[in-house]
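Weekly modeling sync, notes
Attendees: AB, CL, MP (scribe)

Item 1: holo prediction request
CL wants a bound-state model with 4'-phosphopantetheine before deciding which constructs to order. AB pointed out that an apo prediction alone won't tell us much about the pocket. Agreed to run with the ligand included and paste results into these notes for async review.

Input as submitted:
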Amino acid sequence: MKTAVYPGSFDPVTLGHYDIIERTAKIMDRVVIGVLQNKSKTPLFSAQERVKMLEEVTKDLTNVEVRCFDGLLIDFARSCNAKVIVRGLRAVTDFEYELQMAQTNRVIAPEIDTLFLNTNLKYSYLSSSIVKEIAEFGGDIRGFLHPQIAQKVIEKFAQGKNLETK
Ligand code: PNS
């Protein structure tokens, strides 16, 4: 069984992430989405909320599961029995960071490969951070997220959250 992990912050999951998940699910037997729990920056959504949102949007993809992880990505990949890490590449600006991560991961875990999927052109400009910034200032984010996720982002900011304090 070929298992891939698709790691990220997913704060929140965008249509760009979903496109990568859907395509990965077609080429792999099993996909485990790894939601990074503790990062230095404070997320808008808790890890549990991010997992729940991902479960909601992937509920029809039968070979996809969602988990939280902490610590090293390669340890998470090993715990899932995955030999492949999937990352989406939007533009050349992503490349340097992604290549550094992939090379480092390969040095510490030579049995695990990183597979890059080019993002759908429709979403090549899209990031969770940009979506949050638009939402914070009352802009229309409906074209970037699943409707139920857009609603959750709008509700967060309506509760008085902002990107400075969260
Ligand atoms: O969506 P993001 O924030 O770009 O995802 C980054 C992520 C989660 C893939 C990266 O930060 C990560 O793998 N973190 C886990 C810690 C780790 O393994 N670091 C070494 C990577 S070289």
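Recorded for review: The two ends are 40 Å apart (CA to CA).
Action items: CL to compare against the apo run; MP to circulate these notes.
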